[in-house]
Design goal:
Radius of gyration: 22 Å
Strand content: 15-25%
Strand order of the largest sheet: 3-2-1-4-5-6-7
Distance between the termini: 8 Å
Structural class: alpha/beta
Largest sheet: 7 strands, parallel
Number of strands: 13
CATH architecture of the largest domain: 3-Layer(aba) Sandwich
Number of helices: 16
CATH superfamily of the largest domain: Glycogen Phosphorylase B
Helix content: 40-55%
CATH class of the largest domain: Alpha Beta
Length: 378
C-alpha cells in the first residue's frame, strides 16, 4: 500500500462519533503506511505516545483552510513521500484538497453533504472538492445516497466510492455476565424483575427523547416494571426534565456517561431505544447511529426511529424494530411493549444483532476492507 496522510480536525483524544470512526479504522492499518495530521489538543502528547503510528499535531485548535496550511500539508506529504492524502471532512478543511496539488480522497459522513448540497453556492464549492477527488470513502448508505443525489443533480460523474460504514469493537462491546449485569443495574437503582430500556445520545430534538418519554408514560399502567435510563447532555435537557415531571414518566436522565461506562449501561439493559427523526425537510437526519450497533454487539434488541442511516444500523424485525413514524409515541410504545412481553423475541433479536455485528460491522473486518480499497490507489 502506498503511504498516505489522513488530514482531519476530528481525531482522539477528542471524543465523538467521527473521531472514533477514524481512529478505529486507521489504527488497525499498517502503522508505516500512513500518518495523521490533525489539530492540537491538551491531552494530545499523552495520547500520541501510546500509538504505533505517527501523528503530527499542528499548533492550532482547529485546522482552517488557509494558504499557509496548504503549504504546510504539502511539505509534510513531500517530506514523508506520501503519494496521496485523505481529507475529512469535505468542508471546511477539504477546501484545501485541490490546492495542495497531491492526489486525494475525501471521507463523507452525510451531515456535511445534506445542507450544502441544497444551496447553490455551497453546492458548487462542495462539488469542486468532491469531483476532483480520486476516490471518496462513504461512511454508510446515507452519505452514499447524498453523494448520488448531489452528483446526479450536477450532471457530473461520481468518483470511485469505497463504502466503509461505521463499526464496533465486539471485544469492548459484548454481552455482560449475569453478575456484572446485576451489579450495574443495581447501581442504577433498577430492581429485580424491572425492565430497563436505555438510550444514549446528545439531548437535542432530533434524537427523539421526548417521544421515548411520552411512550414510557403511555406504557406505565400496563407495564409498571418499565424503567428508562437516558445518558447524555445537551440543550434539550431542561425541556425533557419538565416533560418527565409533567407526564410522571419512569425516566431517569443520567447526564453524561463516561466512555468506559457505556458498554456496561448497554449490556445491563433489556432493550435500547433512540427514536431519532429527520427535521427541517430532511436537512437534519441521523447519519448512522453507531450506538445501535454497540447495543446489538451486547446482544440487546434495539428500537430506532426512521431517519437517515438508522435503517442500516438496525435490521427491522431481525435485530430490533424501526419505527417508521418516529414522532409517534404510540408506535414507539407498541415496539417497546412487544419486547417487554416476549422474552424469546428479545433473546432472538439480541443474538441476531451480535451475529450481524461480527459478520458485517466488526472494525477488524471494516479496516481490512479499507486497507484493500486503499491498495487500489496508485
Amino acid at each position: 500500500m502506498s503511504k498516505h496522510l489522513l488530514v482531519t480536525n476530528d481525531f482522539p483524544p477528542k471524543v465523538g462519533g467521527i473521531q472514533n470512526y477514524l481512529y478505529e479504522l486507521w489504527r488497525r492499518l499498517d502503522p508505516d503506511s500512513f500518518m495523521v495530521v490533525t489539530s492540537s489538543h491538551p491531552q494530545g502528547d499523552a495520547f500520541d505516545a501510546q500509538q504505533e503510528f505517527e501523528i503530527v499535531r499542528l499548533p492550532s485548535k482547529t485546522l482552517l483552510p488557509t494558504r499557509a496550511l496548504a503549504r504546510r500539508i504539502r511539505e509534510i506529504a513531500e517530506e514523508h513521500q506520501a503519494s496521496f492524502i485523505i481529507w475529512d471532512p469535505a468542508l471546511p478543511i477539504g477546501l484545501l484538497a485541490p490546492k495542495v496539488g497531491i492526489q486525494y480522497g475525501v471521507v463523507v459522513h452525510g451531515a456535511e453533504l445534506a445542507v450544502p448540497a441544497r444551496l447553490p453556492i455551497a453546492s458548487r464549492i462542495l462539488l469542486n472538492v468532491l469531483s476532483k477527488a480520486s476516490f471518496l470513502i462513504s461512511a454508510g448508505q446515507y452519505p452514499r445516497s447524498e453523494l448520488e443525489r448531489l452528483f446526479s443533480r450536477s450532471g457530473q460523474e461520481l468518483p470511485k466510492v469505497f463504502d466503509i460504514p461505521p463499526g464496533v469493537d465486539p471485544i469492548r462491546f459484548e454481552p455482560l455476565s449475569e453478575e456484572m449485569r446485576s451489579s450495574y443495574r443495581s447501581s442504577l437503582g433498577v430492581k429485580d424483575g424491572e425492565f430497563l430500556v436505555s438510550s444514549v445520545s446528545r439531548l437535542v430534538p432530533r434524537k427523539g427523547m421526548d417521544t421515548l418519554i411520552i411512550a414510557t408514560a403511555l406504557l406505565q399502567s400496563a407495564h409498571p416494571e418499565l424503567k428508562v435510563a437516558i445518558a447524555g447532555s445537551g440543550r434539550d435537557e431542561m425541556r425533557l426534565r419538565r416533560l418527565i415531571r409533567r407526564r410522571h414518566a419512569a425516566v431517569n436522565l443520567l447526564g453524561r456517561v463516561a466512555e468506559e461506562e457505556l458498554p456496561y449501561l448497554l449490556g445491563a439493559s433489556d432493550a435500547f431505544a433512540m427514536l431519532c427523526r429527520s427535521r427541517w425537510a430532511g436537512l437534519e437526519q441521523e447519519g448512522f447511529g453507531i450506538v445501535f450497533l454497540e447495543a446489538s454487539a451486547c446482544e440487546v434488541p434495539v428500537i430506532a426511529g426512521y431517519s437517515g442511516g438508522s435503517t442500516e444500523a438496525v435490521s427491522h424485525e431481525q435485530t430490533g424494530f424501526v419505527v417508521y413514524q418516529p414522532k409517534s409515541s404510540r408506535k414507539a410504545a407498541e415496539a417497546i411493549s412487544m419486547l417487554i412481553s416476549n422474552e424469546s423475541l428479545r433473546r432472538e433479536m439480541g443474538q441476531n444483532g451480535r451475529r450481524r455485528v461480527l459478520d458485517e460491522f466488526s472494525y477488524d473486518r471494516l479496516s481490512e476492507r479499507l486497507e484493500n480499497s486503499l491498495a487500489l490507489i496508485c
